[in-house]
């Protein structure tokens, strides 16, 4: 993991929100996380205690997720052994460390590592409960489901996997087991009630107006199939086939079907939830719990290889994964570097901050002063002494352009220059909107500094000659408009 991504790389926006929340008193932390994160405060309470022990640096806060991801890897290996899959350990390890989304989960100070561990633990305990009548496994299964739900609400979809598993691979006494499972689910849902109430409360009270778009067919198909993993697997199997013949082991029809469901189910659930809630939920980190299914599918496919081919495929996998395809940098938001640049500049100049997120396009959201701390978490993390102003939304709507132009004009009327920090998302052109607004407010962009997706832009007041030319052009445009 350290080879693919430095542990000490700058936090991205959501991680700085974690860093901001753990600085709050416990009661305020719980209240703020309930309002801003639409999630249970469980992870933030845990990570606050973790920071008291190991510190609050980037590596320290990320180490908790790394440990949870490694624990998930160990549990997945135990699941494979429970299913009596031969030679599965190496392939499961390689699958975990080859998947970019697992690396993101492991090295991110966010709840996804804890949720992945809880979801994997619930599957492991479910299999043991399915094959035994032990009260211990029943209690552990219910506790793991509750932990999964309150680690991240969307990860509770693993419960549907367990129901399908029970139906597709019934135990010896299916009627009794289904009745017992119904009792366990009833108990579990009683503990889900506070979380469900919070989800409903947040959606009706604090949810911003998302500009939602229907997921495209390409996004739906691409989501469960990580390109780099398929490249590794196909090349490894092709190389192995050239070196040695295949064995013909017994087929694992039920296990393969269940593993494929485990792989594809998260994407299906996220698409359905996106359609029902009209929210953009088809995000890879929300479905990272599919990694167990991918690992089992790869392990099942590898059982067709002879020992010689197994070694050849292993070597090929490692070579391709670490040399050709592995992304060594994922976090592209250089907030720490941008903050360092800001601290070296004059603190007398006004600083405006734009997240570039869809939430900031909602006027009710942007005018709520409480949300400014949410959007300003990166600067609060890395430049706490630098004052900033949350900028109006950078959209092409006439109202947004007018507000942005008025804001810049007012700042340039009292200062020779100002700084603008912009988090630009892929596929957006907000910097061009800012440039147009600067032109219309009597300013011009003089400097641009890029720190990944974070831009630091200096806007200076135009000289009087250029300003007069601008006013004359604006007057001509106005006459032509009314003409």
Describe the structure concisely.
This protein is of the alpha/beta class and 483 residues long. The protein has helices at residues 13-21, 26-36, 42-54, 58-82, 89-98, 100-106, 112-130, 135-151, 158-168, 174-205, 217-222, 227-243, 253-277, 291-302, 307-325, 335-343, 363-366, 369-375, 377-382, 398-414, 430-440, 464-482; strands at residues 351-354, 389-390, 417-423, 443-451, 454-461.
Structural class: alpha/beta
Average pLDDT works out at 81
| Estimated helix fraction | 55-70%
Radius of gyration: 26 Å
Strand content: 5-15%
Secondary-structure element series? HHHHHHHHHHHHHHHHEHHHEHEHEEH
Return residue spans where pLDDT drops below 50 for at least 5 consecutive residues. Answer: 477-483
Number of distinct helices: 22
- Count up the domains: 2
Mind explaining what this structure looks like?
The protein is an alpha/beta fold and 483 residues long. It folds into two domains: 13-325, no CATH class; 335-482, Rossmann fold (3-Layer(aba) Sandwich). 63% of the residues lie in helices and 6% in strands. It has helices spanning 13-21, 26-36, 42-54, 58-82, 89-98, 100-106, 112-130, 135-151, 158-168, 174-205, 217-222, 227-243, 253-277, 291-302, 307-325, 335-343, 363-366, 369-375, 377-382, 398-414, 430-440, 464-482; strands at residues 351-354, 389-390, 417-423, 443-451, 454-461. It has a five-stranded mixed beta sheet. A hairpin with a 2-residue loop joins strand 4 and strand 5. The relative contact order is 0.10. Mean pLDDT is 81; it is low at 477-483.
């Amino acid at each position: 993991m350290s080879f693919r991504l430095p542990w000490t790389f700058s936090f991205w926006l959501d991680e700085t929100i974690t860093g901001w929340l753990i600085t709050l008193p416990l009661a305020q932390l719980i209240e703020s996380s309930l309002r801003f994160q639409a999630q249970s405060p469980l992870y933030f309470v845990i990570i606050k205690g973790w920071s008291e022990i190991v510190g609050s640096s980037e590596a320290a806060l990320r180490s908790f997720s790394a440990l949870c991801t490694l624990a998930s890897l160990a549990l997945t290996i135990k699941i494979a052994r429970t299913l009596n899959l031969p030679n599965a350990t190496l392939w499961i390890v390689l699958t975990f460390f080859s998947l970019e989304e697992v690396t993101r989960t492991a090295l991110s100070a966010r709840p996804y590592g804890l949720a992945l561990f809880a979801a994997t633990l619930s599957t492991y305990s479910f299999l043991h409960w399915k094959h035994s009548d032990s009260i211990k496994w029943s209690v552990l299964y219910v506790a793991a489901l509750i932990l999964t739900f309150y680690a991240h609400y969307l990860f509770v979809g693993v419960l549907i996997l367990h129901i399908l598993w029970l139906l597709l691979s019934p135990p010896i006494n299916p009627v009794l087991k289904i009745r017992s499972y119904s009792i366990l689910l009833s108990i579990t849902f009683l503990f889900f009630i506070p979380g469900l109430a919070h989800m409903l409360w947040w959606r009706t009270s604090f949810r911003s107006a998302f500009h939602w778009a229907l997921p495209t067919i390409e996004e739906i198909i691409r989501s469960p199939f990580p390109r780099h993993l398929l490249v590794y697997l196909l090349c490894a199997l092709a190389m192995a086939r050239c070196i040695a013949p295949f064995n013909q082991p017994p087929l694992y029809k039920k296990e393969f079907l269940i593993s494929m469901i485990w792989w594809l189910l998260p994407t299906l659930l996220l698409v359905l939830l996106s359609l029902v809630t009209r929210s953009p939920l088809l995000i890879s980190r929300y479905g990272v719990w599919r990694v167990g299914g991918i690992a089992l599918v790869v392990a099942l496919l590898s059982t067709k290889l002879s020992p010689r081919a197994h070694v050849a495929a292993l070597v090929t996998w490692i070579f391709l994964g670490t040399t050709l395809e592995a992304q060594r940098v994922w976090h592209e938001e250089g907030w720490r570097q941008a903050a360092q640049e800001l601290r070296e500049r004059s603190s007398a100049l006004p600083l405006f901050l734009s997240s570039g997120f869809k939430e900031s396009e909602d006027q009710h959201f942007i005018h709520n002063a409480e949300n400014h701390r949410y959007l300003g978490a990166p600067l609060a993390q890395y430049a706490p002494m630098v004052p900033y102003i949350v900028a109006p939304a950078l959209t092409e709507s006439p109202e947004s352009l007018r507000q942005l132009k008025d804001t810049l004009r007012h700042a340039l009327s009292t200062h020779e220059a100002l700084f603008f920090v912009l988090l630009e998302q892929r596929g957006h052109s907000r910097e061009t909107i800012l440039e147009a607004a600067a032109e219309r407010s009597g300013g011009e962009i003089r400097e641009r500094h890029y720190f990944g997706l974070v831009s630091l832009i200096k806007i200076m007041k135009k000289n009087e000659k250029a300003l007069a030319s601008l006013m004359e052009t604006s007057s001509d445009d106005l006459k032509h408009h009314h003409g």
